[in-house]
Amino acid sequence: MSTEPAALAGAESPAPSFEEVFRTCAPFVWRASRRLGVRERDVEDVCQEVFVAVHRKLDSFEGRSSVRTWLYGICVHAASNHRRRSHVRREVVSDTLSEQIAAADQHEGLERQQALAQLAEMLNELDHDRRAVFVLYEIEQLSMSEIASAVGCPLQTAYSRLHAARKQLEATVKRLQARREMP
What we know:
Blueprint: H1 6-9, H2 18-35, H3 43-57, H4 67-85, H5 106-125, H6 128-139, H7 144-151, H8 155-181
Helix pairs in contact: 2-3, 2-4, 3-4, 4-7, 6-7, 6-8, 7-8
């Protein structure tokens, strides 16, 4: 189910404004960037790159696909560029630690954080093509026709990649469960 307003849905509606695209799609861009392997500390930078590109290219958006599909293509490009140049970046080491106050629900937060880290690790094991299809279908809940358009492959290839990604993730889950059960 799409959460896009009518102006973002496709060809029959008028071109969306930048503000509308940003307001409705920023969470999607953040999640897509994160799921495309961008480290959490770099996601804001990549999202900014995506929306700079959107601002420049919005007038040329033809509406042949949904805005989310179009945005995903931009996210893929921005994440790829980021990964290519991230090897030259170095972390800045600080002598001081920021004071952190833990909330009362630490256990639940820790479990959620560990589950998300495990999901990210499992997604990192998938090749780029399978990962893109899996994330768009299972997490972002786009239709397979939108996904095929976004990743630039035939519809049946998208289904094949989804099936292969599910099989690979299933094998990874079984491997992790077996590792936990070992004494």
